[in-house]
Amino acid sequence: MLSTSAVASCALAQRINDAGVATPSFSSADVENRLAGSEFAAAREHAEQLAAFLSLLAKWNRVYNLTGFRDARRLLDRNLVECLSLGSWLKGVRIADVGTGAGLPGLPLAITEPGRHFTLIESRAKRIHFLRHVVGELGLANVDIAHCRAEDLPMGPAFDTVLARAVAAPLELLTITRHLTAPGSILTLLTSAEKGEEFRELTPDFELQQIQAVGPDGNFGAVVLLERTR
């Protein structure tokens, strides 16, 4: 008898087959060539896993609408290069990805940073199903998936780094992530440079450390780094 997960996967595959639309697929060479033109590099085994992740994302996206980027170039640029740009900003071992959606930026970083442990936080069931499938397919032992809203995640040891895209207004984002952090934790955001300035002196316990443009000519937005100081 098939498990619930297997039945769901079979149903998804049938819906994808019925769609009859070509889906981008990726090889490790595609990933290596794209990263060679950026400031990042990936080991061969990581390139293979990154390619597998992107191929799964493109396939599932046809049914689950996981990302607005559908062509191969933009999937590589915005869902890989942009996410990997956060690698040099990570601190410590325990990393949380708030509102991870399709596992962005958490999954690409978990692939390329196997010595760190990532908790992907997502409230939407369809995305959770996709995340669990990817983690199982790629054998990512350094990833946990939390099916809840960030503010509902039970308190535990503080995370060293909390990652987020622009999932909420600045003050709301600090409010919903505060219990995930402790003094010394960092909050690393992918947003626009203009939005980044909104975090300056927003609350007394988070200090804006840096805003840095991402991508060619800064056209992928900006990384905003805040540190919890008290």
Q: Which stretches are poorly predicted, pLDDT < 50 over at least 5 residues?
A: 1-19
Number of helices: 8
- Annotated CATH homologous superfamily: Vaccinia Virus protein VP39
Spell the H/E element sequence: HHHHEHEHEEHEHEE
The total domain count is 1
CATH topology: Rossmann fold
Number of strands: 7
- What general form does the structure show? globular
- Specify the helix fraction band: 40-55%
CATH hierarchy: architecture: 3-Layer(aba) Sandwich
Concise account of the structure shown:
By secondary structure, the protein is α/β, with parallel strands linked by helices. It has helices spanning 4-19, 28-36, 44-64, 72-84, 106-112, 125-138, 170-177, 193-197, and strands spanning 94-98, 117-122, 143-147, 161-165, 186-191, 206-213, 222-228. Strands 3-2-1-4-5-7-6 form a seven-stranded mixed sheet.
Please, could you describe this protein's structure?
It contains eight helices and seven strands, in the order ααααβαβαββαβαββ. With 230 residues, the chain is an alpha/beta fold. The chain has one domain: Rossmann fold, CATH 3.40.50. The chain has a seven-stranded mixed β-sheet with strand order 3-2-1-4-5-7-6. A hairpin with an 8-residue loop joins β6 and β7. α1 packs across α3, α2 packs across α3 and α3 runs antiparallel to α6.
Task: Record keyword descriptors for this entry.
single chain, 8 helices, 230 residues, alpha/beta
Please outline the helices and strands.
Elements: H1 4-19, H2 28-36, H3 44-64, H4 72-84, E1 94-98, H5 106-112, E2 117-122, H6 125-138, E3 143-147, E4 161-165, H7 170-177, E5 186-191, H8 193-197, E6 206-213, E7 222-228
Parallel strand pairs: 1-2, 1-4, 2-3, 4-5
Antiparallel strand pairs: 5-7, 6-7
Helix pairs in contact: 1-3, 2-3, 3-5, 3-6, 4-5
